[in-house]
Amino acid sequence: MKKVATIFLAISIIIVTNIGYGSDEELKTIQNIVSTMSSDIKTENIKKSPVNGWYTITKGAYVAYISSDGRHLIQGDMYDIETQVNLSEIIRNESRKNVIESYPEKDMIVFSPESKSHHVTVFTDVDCTFCRRLHNQIDEYLSEGIEIRYLMYPRSGPQSASWVIAEQIWCSADRNDALTLAKIDQNFDYSQCNSAAISSHYLMGQSVGLQGTPAIILEDGSMVNGYVSALELSKILESN
């Protein structure tokens, strides 16, 4: 029982469309079972799944499924074999979209084109080689009409040198310029300020299942891991 409860604590928070089966009473029973095993999982985060007899439990980037009798729990991805669609990833995308959309743009570092066609949210680290490559080509993304909205994700974690630089960037009068200078190892001016936003960015990255940087979150919540050229990213956004 303790092991199962531990699994619940690792599972994800998402809004899922009610396209599954089962009565409302059955759903309520499952919600009660899960809530008694883990207070970290709210009843509204337990929904009917696309598969008859199973319910979805979500929190962050993790998805699990529990049988309608409350006896069996599966953690992992669910695929529709006929359509070859990863159903769990659809849930993750919706979760990421909700998380990003609920975060105020004023708490991001935004590079905007004159004429915006699309926007992406990029988790970045000042010491990441491919993050630097992406930012070195920022004008190319802007030329494609892509707005880049940065969130800081120092991979080495709190109190590291990268974390300190991220805080200094946030405390600069011109964050855009400071970020650009930091990515080419140049000094920039900053003052003391409330840099709690960096912790917020970092925790958000963990909650959406970040595995490295750069991580590009598209408008539909899907995530592109790693560097993608401006032209290729434009094609991806147009096809979504």
Describe the model.
A hairpin with a 2-residue loop joins strand 2 (54-59) and strand 3. Mean pLDDT is 87; it is low at 1-21. Helix 6 runs antiparallel to helix 7. This protein folds into two domains: 2-100, no CATH class; 104-239, Glutaredoxin (3-Layer(aba) Sandwich). The chain has helices at 2-9, 24-37, 87-101, 129-136, 138-143, 161-170, 175-182, 196-207, 230-239, and strands at residues 46-48, 54-59, 62-67, 73-75, 79-80, 85-86, 109-111, 118-124, 146-152, 215-217, 223-225. 38% of the residues lie in helices and 19% in strands.
Features:
single chain; 240 residues; alpha+beta; Glutaredoxin; 2 domains; 5-stranded mixed sheet; 4-stranded antiparallel sheet; 9 helices; 11 strands; globular; disordered N terminus
Short characterization:
The protein is an alpha+beta fold and about 240 residues long.
Please tell me what the overall shape is: globular
Biggest sheet descriptor? 5 strands, mixed
Distance between the termini: 42 Å
The CATH level-2 architecture of the largest domain is identified as 3-Layer(aba) Sandwich
The count of DSSP E runs of length 2 or more, i.e. the number of strands, is 11
**Relative helix content:** 25-40%
Low-confidence stretches: 1-21
Overall tally of domains: 2
What does the radius of gyration come to? 20 Å
User: Helix count?
Assistant: 9
Mean pLDDT: 87
Strands ordered across the widest β-sheet: 7-9-8-10-11
Reading off the top of the CATH hierarchy, the class of the largest domain is best stated as: Alpha Beta
Oligomer: single chain
The chain-level structural class is alpha+beta
The CATH topology label of the largest domain is Glutaredoxin
